[in-house]
Write a structure and sequence with these properties.
This protein has a domain of 78 residues: hypothetical protein PF0899 fold (2-Layer Sandwich), CATH 3.30.2320.50. Helices cover 24% and strands 35% of the residues. A hairpin with a 2-residue loop joins strand 5 and strand 6.
C-alpha cells in the first residue's frame, strides 16, 4: 500500500512549510490527485488519519480534489475526450494532466506576534 509512503512524503513537506512559521498549527491540507496517479483516495485518507498522529499534521484535515486525465493533440491543441482513440492529426495525443499528486495549499493558524 504505497499510500502510506505518499502520506509520509506529504507530512515531511508540510513540516518543512510549517517550520517557516514557528508556532503555527496546521489546520488543513489541500491535495490534487490525478486519476492516473495510481492512488486510491479512500486508502490515502485512511493512511493520513493513521500517520498524522504526533506529527505537524496531528490536528489537520485532508481535502482531496480528484483530477481527471486530460489528453491533448500536439499539433492542433484539441482536447481528446476520455474513452476515445488517443490520436489526432495523424499522431498520438499527449497527457497534459491527471497523472500527478500536488500539495496545492496548506492552511495554518499562526499566532500573533
Amino acid at each position: 500500500m504505497h499510500e502510506y509512503s505518499i502520506v509520509a512524503s506529504l507530512v515531511d513537506r508540510v513540516d518543512e512549510i510549517a517550520a517557516t512559521r514557528p508556532g503555527a498549527i496546521v489546520r488543513k491540507l489541500h491535495v490534487r490527485i490525478g486519476e492516473l496517479a495510481g492512488v486510491e483516495i479512500d486508502l490515502l485518507q485512511t493512511a493520513f488519519a493513521t500517520f498524522r498522529e504526533r506529527t505537524v499534521c496531528d490536528r489537520a484535515d485532508l481535502a482531496i480534489e480528484a483530477v481527471p486525465a486530460v489528453w491533448r493533440c500536439k499539433s492542433c491543441g484539441r482536447d481528446i475526450p476520455a474513452g476515445t482513440v488517443l490520436r489526432c492529426c495523424q499522431q498520438p495525443a499527449r497527457l497534459v494532466s491527471g497523472d500527478d499528486i500536488i500539495l496545492e495549499r496548506v492552511e495554518m493558524e499562526v499566532r500573533d506576534v
